[in-house]
Amino acid sequence: MPAVDMIQPIGVLNDPEHPASHEDTCLAAALASVKAWIAFPEDPMWEQWYPDGQGKSVRRGKPKDFRALETQGAVMVRVGDALAAGLPPAMYPLSGRMKQLQVAGTEMEHSGRPASHEWPAPEGVPSLQIGVDTALGMSTGKAAAQSAHAAFDWAVRQGPERLRAWAEAGCPARLVPLHRADMARLAPAASVRIHDAGHTEIASGSLTAIAR
């Protein structure tokens, strides 16, 4: 059970016939988190959820689950073979199709390469760049949630006009897996630094993801 009462549910596709990489899955989940906010800005749960800690739950599902989620209005984001579905925050426990998706054991194969979406950005348009620490050994589900934390914090800092320009350009974004030394080198210049609360997998205070 999450340590918060409200969570934003994010689904990631687990399709054995078209397996997605860890990196593509993390970027798709990050973008799904932000695009759900852009798609449903008037949902009252955002205002309650964000200051309360931005809890997220990344869950894996099969193609049939994603067909049902799309019917229910979930925002879909594809990066390579990865597909993620985002919805506005909801009270825990969840209801509907998201409740049926699996949480534990979400693991995709690492490519070790950056993942990109609509990259590079047109001149004058903001671009989201996420770095994720590979030394922590996070599962794909955990890393995807941390990437989504970083992306959402970045989006909030853009302001309405810059965020609108970013969305209209197709949400240009790039996710880079970083070794510990590179994480330490790049973190001081990042506009967003995500430190984990330590509820699952890794120690409290660990620097998991950065964004700029």
UniProtKB/TrEMBL annotation:
EC number assigned by the record: 3.1.1.29
Catalytic activity reported: an N-acyl-L-alpha-aminoacyl-tRNA + H2O = an N-acyl-L-amino acid + a tRNA + H(+)
Gene3D superfamilies, alphabetized: Bit1
Top EC group: hydrolase
Listed transmembrane segments: none
Gene Ontology MF annotations: peptidyl-tRNA hydrolase activity
Keyword field: Hydrolase
Protein name (database record): peptidyl-tRNA hydrolase
Taxonomic source organism: Galactobacter caseinivorans
Highest classification ranks of the organism: Bacteria, Bacillati, Actinomycetota, Actinomycetes, Micrococcales
